[in-house]
Amino acid sequence: MCDQSPSVSSKADSSSTHGVSFAHAQEQKPLIFLLSIKQLSKKISRSRASIYEMINSKSRYFQPLMPQPIRIGRRVYWVSHEIDAFVEATMAARPLSLNH
Questions:
Q1: Predicted structure pTM score
Q2: What values do phi and psi take at 85, rounded to 5?
Q3: In the predicted model, what is the mean pLDDT of the chain?
Q4: DSSP string, 41-74
Q5: Could you report the per-residue pLDDT of 14-27, keeping only the tens digit for each?
Q6: Angle 37-44/80-93 helices, nearest 10 degrees?
Q7: CA 27 to chain CA centroid, nearest Å
Q8: Chain-centre distance of CA 49, in angstroms?
Q9: What's the rounded Cα separation, in Å, for the pair 46 and 48?
Q10: Could you give the C-alpha distances from 62 to 11, 19, 38, 74, in angstroms and in order?
Q11: Up-side HSE of residue 24: CA atoms within 13 Å toward CB?
Q12: pLDDT band, very low/low/confident/very high, at 98 (cuts 50, 70, 90)
């Protein structure tokens, strides 16, 4: 007698060189991409120090809409779609005419 129990396949966490993404096989949620400080710096054209000033509420360069990072172990990441929303909000808040 051969026991044919249904096989359970689980997708391993996928990662890319452009960030870390996590997805569970049972859920149909969109992938969440995480950006390292280096990737974030390149994406928004700001230095590492400038980014940390933007999230520091005691800094004169504090940006209240800038997403706070998440920590995984000793590493720090930003959620890519939150950064995209921050950039879009910043774009929407700018003056329509840049001509002086």
A1: 0.67
A2: -65, -40
A3: 82
A4: HHHHT--HHHHHHHH-TTSTT--TTSPPPEEETT
A5: 444 556 666 655 66
A6: 30
A7: 19
A8: 18
A9: 7
A10: 40, 25, 19, 23
A11: 3
A12: low
